[in-house]
Design brief:
Blueprint lengths: L3 E6 L6 H14 L4 E4 L2 E2 L3 E2 L5 E2 L1 H9 L6 H4 L2 E2 L6 H8 L5 H7 L7 E9 L3 E3 L2 E2 H8 L3 E6 L4 H14 L4 E7 L7 H12 L4 E5 L16
Parallel strand pairs: 1-7, 1-10, 2-7, 3-6, 10-11, 11-12
Antiparallel strand pairs: 4-5, 8-9
Helix pairs in contact: 1-2, 5-6
Length: 219
C-alpha cells in the first residue's frame, strides 16, 4: 500500500479516532475515496444478539462515508478494555502483525486510513507493537497529541521513535481533549516542528464528537 495514512498517538485516550474521522472527512472533501481501517480493537460492547459494538469503527465508517461493513473496517473486536495484545492472550487467539497488515488492505483506487490502538509503542498484536504494524504498512504517519500538560515532551519523544523506525512523519495533530485546553501547547509544538518542516494542525474540543475539517491537511 502506498496511498494512505497510519494514525497513531502519543498515548491512549488522546482522541485518535476523532482525529482520524476528521482526517477522513477532510480527504473526502478533497475528492479522495477513503477506506477506514482499525484492524483490531478492544473495549467493544456486547449486544443482545451476541455481536459486538465497536464505537470507534462505527465513527470511522460514518466520518469516512464508507459503505464497507464494520466487519471489514474492524475485523478483530474484543470486549475487555485492555491492550489488544492482552485481549488476544486472554482469548487464546494468535494474530501477528502480518495478519493485521493484511486486514488493512483496501481495494484498488482507495485511500487507506489506518488507525492504531494506544500509543506508537503500545502492544497491538500477538508478536508486536503499533510500530511493527506501521513498519509493515510503510504509510506516512500522522501523530495525534492530546493537548495536556506534558504533551510537548510526549510528542517529541514519539516523533523521535517514528523517525527511528524509518517512517515518514506526515504531520502532527494537537487535539484538545478537554475544555479550556492550553493553546500555547499547540503554538510551542508548532515552533519545534517548523524546524523539521512538519505540518502541525489543531482540533478544538468538541463534546458532540462531530467531524471537523483540517483545511491545511494535504495528501
Amino acid at each position: 500500500m502506498k496511498a494512505g495514512f497510519f494514525v497513531t498517538g502519543t498515548d491512549t485516550d488522546v482522541g485518535k479516532t476523532y482525529a482520524s474521522g476528521c482526517i477522513g472527512h477532510t480527504l473526502i472533501q478533497q475528492g479522495i475515496d477513503v477506506s477506514p481501517r482499525k484492524p483490531i480493537a478492544s473495549g467493544c460492547i456486547p449486544q443482545a444478539d451476541n455481536s459486538l459494538y465497536c464505537e470507534d469503527a462505527v465513527f470511522l465508517k460514518q466520518a469516512c462515508e464508507s459503505e464497507e461493513p464494520i466487519e471489514r473496517i474492524c475485523p478483530n473486536q474484543f470486549i475487555p478494555p485492555i491492550s489488544p495484545q492482552r485481549a488476544l492472550q486472554q482469548a487464546g487467539i494468535t494474530l501477528t502483525s502480518k495478519d493485521l497488515a493484511k486486514a488493512c488492505e483496501v481495494d484498488p483506487g482507495k485511500f487507506a486510513l489506518v488507525e492504531g490502538a494506544g500509543g506508537f509503542y503500545s502492544p497491538l498484536s500477538s508478536d508486536g507493537l503499533n510500530v511493527d504494524l506501521a513498519k509493515l504498512l510503510q504509510l506516512p504517519v500522522i501523530l495525534v497529541v492530546g493537548n495536556r500538560l506534558g504533551c510537548i515532551n510526549h510528542a517529541l519523544l514519539t516523533i523521535e521513535a517514528i523517525e527511528h523506525a524509518g517512517l515518514p512523519l506526515h504531520s502532527v495533530i494537537v487535539n484538545d481533549i478537554a475544555p479550556q485546553a492550553d493553546l500555547a501547547n499547540f503554538k510551542d509544538l508548532k515552533h519545534y516542528l517548523s524546524e523539521k518542516n512538519i505540518g502541525c494542525h489543531h482540533l478544538a474540543f468538541n463534546p458532540l464528537k462531530q467531524t471537523a475539517l483540517l483545511p491545511d491537511l494535504r495528501v
